[in-house]
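Write out the bound-state structure for flavin-adenine dinucleotide.
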Amino acid sequence: MTLPASPVAPDALEPEIARTARELRLDARSAELDAEPAFPRAEFALLASQGWIGLRAPTSLGGRGLPLRRAGRLLWALAHESGTTFAKLALQPEFCSVLAEHGSPELVERWYRPLVQGRTLVGNHVTEPSAGSDAGALATRAEPSGSDYLLTGIKSEAAFATDADAAIVYARIARPGKDPVGVTAFLVPQDLPGITKTVIPDLGERWMRRGTVEYREVRVPASARIGDEGAAFGYLKDELDRERAVLAAIYLGVARRSFEQTVEHVGSRAAFGRPLAAQQGISFPLAEDWAKLDAAELYVDRVLGRLDSGSAGSPEAALAKWLATSTALEVLDHAIQFHGGRGYSKALPHEQRWRDVRSGAIAHGPSEIMRLVGARGLWPR
Ligand SMILES: Cc1cc2nc3c(=O)[nH]c(=O)nc-3n(C[C@H](O)[C@H](O)[C@H](O)COP(=O)(O)OP(=O)(O)OC[C@H]3O[C@@H](n4cnc5c(N)ncnc54)[C@H](O)[C@@H]3O)c2cc1C
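---
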């Protein structure tokens, strides 16, 4: 049986992506990393050597410099082959584009170029115990001290809490006798004195080993500052728009794979003397999933293209992530359900895919905030 292809499948490159995934055992590695969480440094370097890390990174810095829409389609396909793990690994430079776009040439050479080469890992420390969705409530302080800054604060929920070689840390400038102002980004090597790290086990995407990183008067030089004092929120907004839309493509790639496997399964598995697919209780939800997946893929693809041309912005990017995660989670839930007892088990990949995609409704802006940002597109402030 030939299933209808996704409207966003990048036909010409499909064999190349499938070959890469097969050669590197990405699907199996993703399951292994779920069972024994670790940062996959070997695969990171291998994927980089094949041009998969930094699809969007400038060619002058070793990336492929692809437009968002093209990168989105490729990552959709990589996610379709191997789940979220390696597609998100490929996106690491995109999560650090604040550094590429606003860091000094020295910082970019020291940290961004090796990141694109898969030789170093740079985390992002925005969220704090009292500031998540409301990032404006950030309390981490950067106190000027001679020609340095002293960083003090707690960063929570951070991916790669113990594995990152460096992190982009967002803090408020705190001058003596004045209220802290101006969120500013710093590139902070994670082996500096005064940093302590804790990992807290997660539901999914366990290879990211998220956790808490505490900074106690960590001394960084002024040269570690990324861009201007007080300008970091503006930098971050542009990065978030792009990463949300590309992440949406990844979640849909994962869900598409489970959808295809479920359609095959219910066509061949019999109960009560007939294939499961002959039961409308099963065929109708899957018919709906087909339409919803096509619709979400086309919407996300359009938003990526419109972000490329500058004709869309934060509301569309936020809605793309909301639509993709809610559609994907519904499709993955059906995959678990219609595979029955095995669907709920680790014998099949659907439960891990559901757990991994579930993070998408929280990370990079929770779904409630995505709709809040989306609504601002209808009623601008
Ligand atoms: C897998 C994963 C990876 C992550 N990686 C990183 C990372 O590398 N670096 C980093 O800094 N952070 C990271 N995060 C943290 C993530 O960005 C935050 O969890 C997220 O921004 C939500 O913040 P919070 O956890 O404080 O939730 P809260 O802000 O406490 O929100 C709790 C709930 O309330 C809802 N809510 C809040 N305000 C409103 C409102 N006005 N209207 C309606 N609902 C509202 C939220 O949507 C959410 O559902 C990661 C999270 C996950 C799950």
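---
The longest strand covers residues 148-158.
Residues 225 and 260 are 47 Å apart (CA to CA).
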